[in-house]
Design goal:
It is a single chain. By secondary structure, the chain is of the alpha+beta class. The chain has one domain (3-108). Helix content is 15%, strand content 31%. The protein starts with a strand and ends with a strand.
Length: 110
């Protein structure tokens, strides 16, 4: 089991309610589209592109996810079993309050 972390926004963009109310994790930017079909990997350690590539392709069912806003931990979840709960390119999340993102289903345990 691995532990991942995902931020619920950045200063001025707070998506905590979206994550919790819709039981999703969103990540972006999504300028290339589906991260499983387009390579976000850019060879730069810890870059946004590498983070998107890694989070879209590497979580396994049972892995834990720490959800945070700033330094505050909001909740802890688990990547559930089933393909429908893994990374999904979803146009419904293509622009969330001006932020270009995509979605990853989650299963909260908080």
């Amino acid at each position: 089991m691995r532990v991942w972390q995902i931020a619920t926004g950045e200063p001025g963009r707070d998506y905590r309610e979206l994550f919790i109310n819709y039981d999703v994790m969103i990540l972006g930017p999504s300028r290339y589209g589906d991260a499983r079909e387009h390579d976000y990997y850019d060879g730069i350690p810890n870059s946004i592109g590498n983070q998107i590539h890694s989070f879209a392709n590497n979580p396994l069912p049972g892995d834990r996810v720490i959800m945070r806003h700033g330094r505050q931990v909001i909740g802890v979840g688990e990547i559930p079993h089933g393909e429908q709960h893994q990374y999904t390119y979803n146009e419904a999340f293509s622009c969330v309050y001006g932020w270009e993102v995509r979605c990853l289903s989650s299963q909260r345990s908080t």
